[in-house]
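Data availability (excerpt). The following record was deposited with the supplementary files.
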Amino acid sequence: MASISPAPADVRPASKAETVVVTRGVTKHYGAVHAVDGVDLEIARGELFGLIGHNGAGKSTLFKMMLGLIPLTSGEILIDNASVSGSGFRAVRRKIGYLPENVVLYENLTGLETLQFFSRLKGAPLQDCAPTLERVGLTHAARRRVREYSKGMRQRLGFAQALLGRPQILFLDEPTNGLDPEAIRGFYAILRGLRAEGVTVVLTSHILTEIQERVDRLAIMAAGKVQAIGSVQALREQMDLPLWFDIRIASEHFDAVRSALGHLSISAIEAHDDHVAVQCRREAKMAVLEALAALDGKVLDLHVREPSLEDVFFGFSD
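Predicted structure:
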């Protein structure tokens, strides 16, 4: 299968000063169920923003309200300074691309015909269809009917329709479902190119390891509320989760390591053959490094493990 082609790289980075998505006190109630319960967010133009949470946390409901697909119970959502409940949102909608979690396509149309169909709906140029297929790595399957597409190919085609009309804001709900590792890498290359062009991208994902180094900021949702918001590193620091040092050292020097670190605030120290694992609080990081550096070459290698996004997520959502 052909890989997704990245966007051109000769573009300037977008300014982060202008806010393009704003939610204020947004709620959505279904009787006694508070699917979204007082969400406040601000997302900057050109930002790659992640929205994560357990199933039922309210992510998809919030997405649909941002798109104007379902009404708010209370609060306000502004997209590019237009209220999703107002008459001006119709014009803003033309700047938005959307990929739903479950892509539903017409089985008997070819890939090219599918994009042509969506182009007519959006009022987008038909001549953009073939280049968009090429961009997502589906040129080879342009004349094949969608019923012959694999799950990953359908996902690429769904992403392609979201890109039609050159949107300035993209809402992508679980966009990498069914994609292989090569295609996921290409997908995020496209998003980096779009971000550099000033396109705002809001996405959800259950694969936390996939997005932790790829989003600018993210919000963690649970029970309809935003529990935390910020960059991955900022959330790590806010949670104050411990760090792990993986140290490679000859076994006969293990006591030297223990002695060098004995006066520091170490949470745990474990020996495994020629490796020593040391856990410490973040504020002790530099002191541990200095103590290890003073061991006169006894340390053969060193790796510092930051808390993963999964660790951060469970810390805030549990």
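Summary of structural features: The longest strand covers residues 19-30.
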